[in-house]
Amino acid sequence: MRIAGAGTRLVGLVVAGGLVAALMSLPLVGGLGLVAERASGSATELSPELRSGIVPEATTVTDSAGAPIAYLYDQFRIPDGSVSAAMRAAIVAIEDRRFFDHGGVDPIGTLRAVVHDASGGAQQGGSTLTQQYVKNYELYVTATTDAERAAAVAPSLARKVTEAELAVQLDHALSKDEILARYLDLVYFGHGAYGVGAAAQAYFGTTPDRLTVAQSALLAGLVQSPAEDDPVAHPDAALTRRGLVLDAMHAQGAIDDAQYTAASAEPLGVGDVGVPRAGCSAAGDAGYFCAYVSSYLQAAGLPPALLAGGGYTVRTTLDRSALGHLVTSLTAQAPPDGSHVADVMSVVAPGADRHPVVAIAANRPFGNGEGESAYDLPVVPENLGAGSVYKIFTAAAALDRGIAGIDTVLDVPASGSTLPNYRGADGRPLPVRNAGTYPAQLSLTDALAQSPNTAFVELEGRTGVAPAVDMAQRLGLTSLDTPGPDGRSVADVARAEDQASFTLGVSPTSDLELANVMATIASHGTWCPPTPIASVTDRDGNAVALAEPPCTQAVDPGLADTLMVGLGRDHLPGGTSAAAAASSGWDRPIAAKTGTTQDQESAAFVGATPQLAGAVITFDDSAAPRPICDGSPPRSCAGGTLFGGTVPARTFYRAMGPILEGRPVAPLPDPDPRYLDAR
């Protein structure tokens, strides 16, 4: 009589709500309930999304060995794989004990819930797992606004009827096992864990297929109220709730007496509960690399919004061992708490068809906290310049145009000389100063090693500024072409204004791009984008193609090989990095160049062996840069003593030495006779 009375009340409520036709699509069978065998004639149809069952999954970013470094997600959900029989039995026992018998809607439970909710009482259960799946799919997948999410769980009769119709359709479209698997993959378990895969990891550090009876009962009990039954915040409530699930499992024959007794006696067994933090701020020392991965993928056609729910696996080129050596050297040379002294390093592997980024790092921790930086230090151009490193581009332009070869003897005007091509804004010649005293003439090779400014400003006067700028872009300084606020790029301005200062490296410079410049030279003149990506696969394991720029032959192979030889004396006695190389025990051939800006607010070092190329920039990253004095630690000061051969070179050699340890000592390539002298 109680159920019959409820049914009479329901009819009245449905009539009042104008939903008779919708409800009657679920045929009445017998006098005591509804048996939903099919939702015939329903205006509500399964959406393609609900039919497919695709849910947001976290994207996993790994290092080159496949170990995770970061997770990108809005909802932390990972593929479930197989789920233990205990977990499946637990969720059915507590949420829908007739799940394998009904047609998507449990008549008695639905009637009870609809009548209670429609009469203004506290919202009750009664929904089957299939109905819960429909509701949760709307809440966690389909809804994109707060209003839509609120509507997905609103206690309305209209929603209940729609939910029931869709549940019946799903029951006809999918097997019970498929519905149960989808439900477990979708539902929220608290502490940021969506789906049983994430929950198993978050609560017990295991996988769904290994969940025990006690663990399964605890997780199944959380579904109804993850906050109130939270085993961390409310362990007594969680224990009580777990007991209810175990009681239900035992009563339904899912577990025997021995299993029930043993599971009931177990402690909750949870420790530090939680899912990995989302994003690159949780990647530790790999944070800068992770940030570059994200920006690179966006440019290649995988924006952050797609990554956050796409369930991709991004295997990167990051070498964890190399990264460790970078961080050790960077923080030793410029401690993170030093006064405004940033030190960054990038390592890129040369190659004919790829330039994999091996590691990038900075002396500052990556993040948004005090003493940390979310600014992508090694990748984004720093504004102070790389100094005489840019003389490489003038030298390469001279070789390319036949104006000079690496054996060509250059005039070295005295410091303070006024050269015709070096002029101020008013057009009058300005004196060009050297950092030391030099012979009146040097070969181009010796000039690259000793770095007199006057020799390269004079050489640039013969090559022209535009060819030097073009060469920089061809070899890898692609950011020079990025438009500024006025629509003109650094390259545009340097060409248009014939800026002879270009060869002195006053332009904003990306450390990673400098490393790739050296990789291009070491790759016999082949430029490739510095890629951090080894592979990307979707949630089904299929390879994902990326829109990456193709490799190009930037300069003639003979020119690149000869330039490598021309840069091969910087680490030898008389070279600007000789002291740093000696103090680090460096014993390999290397093409290298140092650079220091005029006020010594920044300095740089680049180097390449046939196996690896790299770059370091040290600079004042404050809002009001000051000169930097070398020291332990380096610091801001009135009169700078920072040079490319000090902090930057020491950082490079002391990181790259251990990275290359154990690899064969590779010689520099043979020079091409065409580029030894002017043509």
Automatic annotation (TrEMBL):
GO-annotated biological processes: peptidoglycan biosynthetic process; proteolysis
Domain of life, per lineage: Bacteria
Domain Glycosyl transferase family: 81-250
Family annotation (InterPro entries): Beta-lactam/transpept-like (IPR012338), Glyco_trans_51 (IPR001264), Glycosyltr_51/Transpeptidase (IPR050396), Lysozyme-like_dom_sf (IPR023346), PBP_transglycosylase (IPR036950), PCN-bd_Tpept (IPR001460)
GO cellular component: outer membrane-bounded periplasmic space
Domain Penicillin-binding protein transpeptidase per the UniProt entry, residue ranges: 356-611
MF terms (GO), sorted A to Z: penicillin binding; peptidoglycan glycosyltransferase activity; serine-type D-Ala-D-Ala carboxypeptidase activity
One Pfam family in the UniProt entry: Transpeptidase
SUPFAM superfamilies linked: beta-lactamase/transpeptidase-like, Lysozyme-like
Catalysed conversion reaction: Preferential cleavage: (Ac)2-L-Lys-D-Ala-|-D-Ala. Also transpeptidation of peptidyl-alanyl moieties that are N-acyl substituents of D-alanine; [GlcNAc-(1->4)-Mur2Ac(oyl-L-Ala-gamma-D-Glu-L-Lys-D-Ala-D-Ala)](n)-di-trans,octa-cis-undecaprenyl diphosphate + beta-D-GlcNAc-(1->4)-Mur2Ac(oyl-L-Ala-gamma-D-Glu-L-Lys-D-Ala-D-Ala)-di-trans,octa-cis-undecaprenyl diphosphate = [GlcNAc-(1->4)-Mur2Ac(oyl-L-Ala-gamma-D-Glu-L-Lys-D-Ala-D-Ala)](n+1)-di-trans,octa-cis-undecaprenyl diphosphate + di-trans,octa-cis-undecaprenyl diphosphate + H(+)
Assigned keywords, A-Z: Carboxypeptidase, Glycosyltransferase, Hydrolase, Multifunctional enzyme, Protease, Transferase
Gene3D superfamilies: Biosynthetic peptidoglycan transglycosylase-like, DD-peptidase/beta-lactamase superfamily
Presence of keyword Glycosyltransferase: yes
Listed PANTHER family: BINDING PROTEIN TRANSPEPTIDASE, PUTATIVE-RELATED, PEPTIDOGLYCAN GLYCOSYLTRANSFERASE
Protein name listed in UniProt: Penicillin-binding protein
Species: Pseudonocardia petroleophila
Upper classification of the organism: Bacteria, Bacillati, Actinomycetota, Actinomycetes, Pseudonocardiales
